[in-house]
Amino acid sequence: MSILVVGSIGLDNIKTPFGKVENILGGSAIHFSYSASFFSPVNVVGVIGEDFPDEHFNPLRERGVDLRGVETKKGKTFRWSGSYDYDLNQAHTLETQLNVLEEFNPNLLNEYEESKFVFLANIDPELQLEVLKQIKDPYIVVGDTMNFWIEHKKDALMKTLKNLDILLMNDSEARELCGTHSLLEAAQKILRLGPSTVIIKKGEHGALMFTDSTHFAAPAYPLEEINDPTGAGDSFAGGFLGHLAQTKDFSEATIRRAVVFGSVMASYNVEDFGPKKLQKLTTQEIEKRYKEFEAITRF
Ligand code: AMP
Questions:
Q1: How many domains does the chain have?
Q2: Which domain does 173 fall in, by range?
């Protein structure tokens, strides 16, 4: 089944201890779409400016991603510049230029209103809500956010949270949102804000899933080569929701497997800069790493 994603589409400048890239294709909707497209059809809702190089979309088109919901507006494309030190879990935002994202007023194609699997990727929570309002009867709504929106749009973010089934967040953002160091306490607080499941991503330390009644911990894949963690969270979301849309099953066992698929996709994403690794990934590689995850967690 198709997944509808709304999120940022942009041009990133990224510096890590292992290299530097400029004007690379980025944005939460982009990283998510590459990843999810290995599991399910993906429909993207987003906005670009007139300066966006159209050829950037070719690899996504080749993966069958539907970009009819991407509007081109007068003005400049969203841009993000970030850097990482040796602690790759912590992104340092150097500059965020919202540009056309600031005026974006999403208006869904009629057929998208019937979407059943929805991912509200990291973007202004007001836009997340705007898109959600237009979807008639989704089976599952998953959302993501980041410190930028916790700090700039907390009230709108709280409204979005009320409407989510599953929230994905990284550990530092969960701590910031809930004002606590304890991830268990943060998860319990988040579960009272709306979502019935919360998944806290801990970068190279794996991911934790919490519901009212259960707790699951998946490790991260031990990688030899890491170059750029940008988009790891969105790639995780793509594998996670991709697996749910592919199986159309929301049992706890499937959700646990979805967490592992998310971890597989995030582990590939960080091997190269931006979405470069996922552009050339194969389903065989995904299956191979999933099996390795099974092997390293069996005892
Ligand atoms: P992740 O590393 O998965 O958290 O997401 C990385 C992507 O998020 C980058 O490609 C950025 O373009 C995008 N991004 C950074 N800041 C923002 C923001 N404030 N709103 C939406 N997207 C953002």
A1: 1
A2: 3-297
